[in-house]
Amino acid sequence: MEILAYRYNSICEPDLLLAFEQSGHRVDEMTAEIEKKDISEQERMALVSGRLKKKKYDIVFTVNFFPVISEVCRIFKIPYFSWIVDSPVMELYSDSVKNEWNWIFLFDYALYEEFSALNPNHIFYMPLAVNCERVDRVVAGITWEDRKKYSADVSFVGSLYSEKSPYNRMKKTDSYLCGYLDGIIEAQLKVYGYNFLEECLTEKIINGFKEKVPFYSFPEKASHNDKAALAHLYLGNKVTELERARLLKAVSERFSLDLYTASDASALPKAHLRGLAKTMTEMPKIFHLSKINLNFTSKPIRTGIPLRVWDILGAGGFLITNYQSELPEYFEPGTDLEVYGSEEELLEKIQYYLEHEEKRAEIAKNGYQKVKQEHTVQKRVSKILELFS
After folding, report:
1. For 113-147, how does the pLDDT look when each residue is reduced to its tens digit (9 = 90+)?
2. In whole angstroms, what is the distance from residue 253 CA to residue 363 CA?
3. Is this prediction's pTM over 0.85?
């Protein structure tokens, strides 16, 4: 098949496009949005339309969903494949999700349940994965200098979400509204494996919040789901910010913690700040050489397994992650990875596994073997193409 891939520089793009090529298909890439991040919808439409007029393609592919590309594909009658790898992706509320030429793959089963009825037979559940071949090459090339640079007791790679939390823009002039929202945020912080933020929101609370914050503006042709926007874009990201700040503070006060982030980490003076880590060349080394890797799933990911879990296991790293309801479907806690359900449990398990090297190494090996055998990007792409055929 001839595949046109529209890129915006997602970290998932290179591995996915390579997997399509390894499956015997030709991939042409459009990279204008990598070079110009403020591209308009009109420009995007013109770029894709222009390419489709010049050459016949069997599929147009993107990471995450672009409503305007969906509309272009509908007009040209070309299947549009999009694999959702983030959350929230507010573009899913666009009416374009209903286009019959869409093939949308969602990594979070809660998202699948929310949207599948809008376009039966064209929306699918597809968990994320890892390119073990690429990661194996990076790990095999680890040098003595790498071991000195990246070895650690406990590591965390990722954003602290302080820069991703629009909830912080709220004007706190309504004590009832602030108290209510802060209360459900605190409650959600104590619960793993179930996201109840949306259930706690009433029209009065939503309207009150919209008066205090520059609120997300849905496109005209979209489901204006203000409840979902408030729950996931605002409250969910705030829960993530608070959770990461509190847990990393607790970890850094008891253990040696290496922190790789571009976020402001001034509130974590005891963490060893390592700056940013390059996704392709440095992260696999960090995951492999750290005794313990931590994952804190962003709260807008309601049931799914985030990319970081797959990346750590694919590098042969030992992982402790928060509980997500989909985890037991793919991994056995205590055998392939470890999970925690509270701050106390997280600290206890870090202490235990720092003291039990053989058990830690056995679990890391099991997790790596499982993803390499069952959960590679190549296997996921084969499944996608099988569904299409």
Report:
1. 999 999 999 999 999 999 999 999 999 999 999 99
2. 26
3. yes
